[in-house]
Structures are given as structure tokens and as C-alpha cells.
Design a protein that fits this description.
Chains A, B: Keywords: Hydrolase, Magnesium, Metal-binding. Chains A, B: Belongs to the inositol monophosphatase superfamily. Chains A, B: Mg(2+) binds at residues 78, 100, 102-103, 258. Two copies of one chain form a homodimer. The first copy, chain A, has helices at 6-34, 53-69, 78-83, 105-109, 200-212, 234-242, 256-268, 313-327, and strands at residues 42-43, 50-51, 74-77, 96-103, 116-123, 126-134, 140-145, 151-155, 163-165, 184-186, 227-229, 248-252, 272-274, 297-301. The first copy, chain A, has 337 residues and is of the alpha+beta class. Chain A has a seven-stranded mixed beta sheet, with helices on both faces. A five-stranded mixed beta sheet of chain A has the order 11-10-12-14-13, with helices on both faces. A two-stranded antiparallel ribbon of chain A has the order 1-2. Chain A starts with 5 loop residues before the first helix and ends in a 10-residue tail after the last helix. Residues 38-51 of chain A have low confidence and may be disordered.
């Protein structure tokens, strides 16, 4: 199987959409059950990181279906990764599914709807098919085939509901002239809560404050973004930028399964994703490389159109990336590669 | 009309639910239109505070319907308040509707779904009927009649969809023993973005960091909450705590129309709402008064059950309020009363 033809990718896409809906139905059933009994959870790293039986059940449902349909494909899932010994980045160039059965487990625990199932499919380490399904947000299903003949879509209210092409405003407007001023910024507080000068909590909170502060404030680092959103789900943060419902997603500490599905959608709608830490020695004119999908640090900028000064989308996006880098500290998230 | 009978309140409730759905339909129509053209907006205070034609259109739709049905009732709405000269708090003891046509206008602008219509109805300045409708979150409709024979409900996927009694887990679990540790905390960054030591931005961000930091950190102020959420809508923040989908809502700078509908639901599900600034000279044993509905400072705690130590819901809630007060600075939001 070559994955070069759009019809092959369309098949994979449709399979993943159906599978995400099935998984969502399972989750809604679990939710109803949970409303009748106190949740039994066990703690992972600390009280912030919960795993529920639902989490493992959904991953099994998705993995079993994929392996039955595509036994020759590789599979990376959050729960099996967490349970396994091998902590290196497992993505190879072959066809690989990268799945998060539920992002935002805390949200699920509290039955807050900002929870999503993410199914991504990579070829040559590039997210090529992506499906993000939010069963408690009107059954919103975001999906894309990243291909010259592909597309990106938002389907609402179930399989027979209305479907909208993405980006949600098309063609997407240019980025704001003085970006990050005027941008909608998404980021999460994360699980590292240490009170020490170099902790990720201290740096992340400083980054948020810089982005929020008036222009000129914070020693010139004030970014005066429109708003800062922490939805509790990096999958939803990424998909809102991918669909043009936000401008900037800045998140470190999450994993490839949180963002792989969203990145396929982002790439198809003309967005970019780079490392949230600037690469060493990058100059102001060097082209900015794409983020490593397993790098745990993501800075995504939405797709846009050429602006009235004739700046291309890529020029605007790279300029905004550099403005964000100026206002944010390097975060300490690494992984064995 | 006395508003003492449940059947009178039921009528008002059903009327408000229908009206909220109509307003939601209008908003979805506006959204589709906006996807085809760049939004025309005009700036209010600064670039963060946008008002759109949709905002004014929805308020007119709701106000006209209420005045036609209940000409003797008073009406307070965000848009008419903003446009008027009178900036004092207008709520009197008579029957009064308090309406936010769209909370989270920035979210609406960006077509992010975390946007809600809030319709509240007060008698003797107490929120008595509340409806919060999120047309882009699966058409989730939260509502309540705050009365001994009343109730609170979440209805999803339209008027014929499933309806759940609130709180969403019933009876609601006790608050966590070491609360705020383990709590889900909702709050917003707001519009005051000044970089000065006493600005609300500086204090709010310090409050967020205190709540997030590990126990023992930040000179003992670390609260180690489960998570911090900024959804961009204080209406949704309040309603999630009201429904038991979150534990703490801490927000200052918003207005009565943002929270009135949610507070009716909160009161009916056993939650409490107090001033987010501790009243002057309150002792550790003084009972904590309810928030002034027009006071612009709200600290809400969800309903809960008696815990295994025999502490009543009110005792747990007041203890948690004092723990939050210890970890947060007084915010500078006032209004002419």
C-alpha cells in the first residue's frame, strides 16, 4: 500500500471517522454509568493525572479495530505507551496510527465536555489523516486528509448532521498586523507544579502573563493577546487553531497522541507547527523547521491569507512564531528519541 | 403576581428555555453568515472587548419577547446597560430579568463554541429562575427553578434530546478532604491588562499560580488544584460549578448578567456564591454572607454531601472559601451601587 492515492487515504479517513464515533458512543455510555456511581480512579503521577477504566476501554476498542482492519500498521496509544517499558519515541516511517483514547482525562473525570478522542495516521512521520471527535461538544468531529487533493471538515450533531469545510472562515483572514496583539492564545498549565525558579509551572505562568500584558509592559514582552484559553485538553487547543477558531497554540509537556490528529488538520488548512523552544542559533532570517512530532513542544499558528502588505502566509506565520519566542521562556520537556 | 407558587415559576422557566433556544438558533444562523464574510466589529474598551451586531440582535430578540409577555417586569441586559448613561446597579426587589445575550463575545468572534446565552430571573434580588444555553456545545441547555419544589436540569441535543437532573452526579460527592487540593478551578484573565503592581492582571495571575502550585510552595499558598480552566466565558465557568462539573469558580470583573442565570442553578443544586474578596473584619467563625449579585466579584463552590467526618455541606463549602481567600489577593472591581 503506497498511500499516494487520495482514494486510499479517503478510505483510511472514513474508517477513522466511524471509529471515533463508535468510541464516542462508548464514552457517553460510560458517562451515564458514572453519573450513578462515584468514580473509581487510580493515581498516575500525582492527583492531577488520573486514568479511568473508560480511558483504557476506549483505547482497547480503537486498537482492536485498527489491528483487525490494518494488521500491518503500527499503533501508538497513550495507555499502552504508559504501561510499556519502552519510553523512546516509537514512530518509524511506516504507516502508523497515533491515538489518544481521551484527552483531558481530568475533564472527563469531572464530566466537563472539553474532552476529545484523537486518531492520527502518519506516513513518513508526517500526520496525514487526522480525526478529533468531541463527543460531549455536540458530537463535533474535526477531520482532514493532508494531501493536495484532500480536505478538512467539521461535522456536527452526528453523522447525518451538517458538515462545514475547514478552515471555518474561508479564505482565512490574514493574521493581525500587530500579532500577537489581537490573537486568541491557547495553552495549558500542565502537571509540573513545582515551586522552583526553573520549574515549568513558573515558566509557563510567566509566559501566560507576558502574552496577556499590555504592549510595552513586562519589559517589552507584553503581547496583549485577545484572550488566553486553557481548556484542559491540548487536543482541543490544537484543533481550534487548526480549524481557524484560534490563532496560537503554545503547549509543551503533552505527547504526540495529544496532537497528531490535530496536526494533520492544521497542515491541511495551511497552518504550521514548530518547536515551542527556538532551535539553538536560529537567526532572524533562517527558515523555521517543522516541530518534531514526538518532541513534546508545539507552537502552532493557524492558516491565513496573504496580507495587504503582500506578506505570504508563511512570512506572517514565521514572524508571529518569532514574536511568541521573544515572549516565552524555554520549557524543560524532553524525551528519549 | 406573587412568584410564591411553583406553577408560576414553572411557566417562567419554560418560557425562558424556549426563548434561549430561539436566541441560539439566531446565533447559529449568524455564525453561518459570518463564515462567509469577514466579521465587522467595533471596539468597546479595547481590542479585547468586542461587540458584534449579533450581540445586539440577540439582546433585542430576548428583550422584545420578555416585554411582550411580561410588560410589568424589569429588564437588565448587557448591551442596553452598556449603551445607557446610568451605571449604578439597577436591580430592585421587583421581578427582574437579567440577560446576557452572548457571554464570551471573543469566543463568538473566533467561532469558538464556549459561548452561552444567559437568562436569569430575580425576585427580591435572588436569582430564582436561570437558563444558560450553549448553542455551539451540543445545544446544551442548563436550567433551574430555585424553589423548594423546583429542580435543575441539563438538556442536550435540542428540545427532544435527553435531559439529566443536576447536579450531574447525584448525590454530589463531598468536597475533597484537602480542598483546594484536587479541585477543578475556573477563572478568567479578564480585560485589565496593565503592568503595574496592583493591577488586576498581576493579582489574578498571582492567584492562578498560587492555586496551581504544589502544597507548601509559594510561601504556603500553593493549592495544588487538579486543574485551572479559562474557558473565555464566566457564564460557562459558573454553570459548570453549578452543575457539579467543577468545584470552584473564582471570577471578578464580570457582571450580574454573566452569572445571574448560573447562580439560580447553583443555589438549586446546593452550591454557594460569596464575595471573592473576603468581607472586612470577617473572623474564621463568622458565617459568610452571599455575594451581592451586582458586586462583580464571585467565588462559587459546588454543592456537596455531608462528609465522612460529619461536616455539613455548608461547613465544607465555607472552609474551602476561607482556603481560597488565603491564597488569593483582593481584586479591584467595584461599581456604583
Amino acid at each position: 500500500m503506497s498511500f499516494s492515492s487520495i482514494s486510499e487515504l479517503q478510505q483510511l479517513h472514513d474508517f477513522a471517522c466511524k471509529l471515533a464515533r463508535r468510541a464516542g458512543q462508548y464514552l457517553r455510555g460510560e458517562q451515564v454509568r458514572r453519573q450513578k456511581q462515584t468514580l473509581v480512579t487510580r493515581e498516575k503521577l500525582n492527583s492531577v493525572d488520573l486514568v479511568t477504566a473508560a480511558d483504557e476501554g476506549v483505547e482497547k476498542l480503537i486498537r482492536d479495530a485498527i489491528l483487525a482492519e490494518y494488521p500491518e500498521h503500527a499503533f501508538i496509544g497513550e495507555e499502552s505507551y504508559s504501561a510499556g517499558e519502552e519510553k523512546r519515541f516509537l514512530l518509524k516511517d511506516g504507516p502508523t496510527w497515533i491515538v489518544d483514547p481521551i484527552d483531558g482525562t481530568v475533564s472527563l473525570e469531572f464530566i466537563v465536555p472539553m474532552t476529545a478522542i484523537s486518531i492520527g495516521f502518519c506516513v513518513n512521520s508526517i500526520p496525514t489523516v487526522g480525526v478529533v471527535f468531541a463527543p460531549f461538544i455536540g458530537g463535533s468531529l474535526y477531520s482532514a486528509i493532508h494531501h493536495s487533493e484532500g480536505g478538512a471538515w467539521l461535522s456536527e450533531f452526528g453523522p447525518t448532521g451538517p458538515s462545514t469545510n475547514l478552515p471555518i472562515v474561508s479564505p482565512p483572514p490574514p493574521l493581525p498586523k500587530d500579532a500577537p496583539k489581537g490573537c486568541l492564545f491557547f495553552g495549558e498549565w500542565g502537571k509540573d507544579r513545582r515551586d522552583s525558579p526553573q520549574s515549568n509551572l513558573v515558566k509557563k505562568s510567566s509566559n501566560f502573563i507576558n502574552m496577556a500584558t499590555e504592549i510595552g509592559g513586562r519589559d517589552g514582552k507584553g503581547g496583549m493577546v485577545h484572550g488566553i484559553r486553557s481548556l484542559g485538553s491540548s487536543t482541543m487547543d490544537m484543533v481550534y487553531v487548526a480549524s481557524g477558531q484560534g490563532d496560537i497554540m503554545f503547549e509543551a509537556g503533552c505527547w504526540e497522541w495529544d496532537v497528531c490528529g490535530g496536526i494533520a488538520i492544521l497542515l491541511q488548512t495551511g497552518g504550521i507547527v514548530v518547536d515551542s523552544n527556538p532551535p539553538a542559533n536560529i537567526s532572524d532570517t533562517d527558515p523555521i523547521p517543522m516541530a518534531n512530532i514526538g518532541g513534546r513542544r508545539y507552537l502552532a499558528i493557524r492558516g491565513c491569507s496573504t496580507d495587504s502588505d503582500g506578506r505570504s502566509p508563511r512570512e506572517q506565520q514565521e514572524a508571529l512564531v518569532r514574536e511568541v519566542w521573544k515572549r516565552t521562556e524555554r520549557l524543560n520537556y524532553e524525551r528519549p528519541m
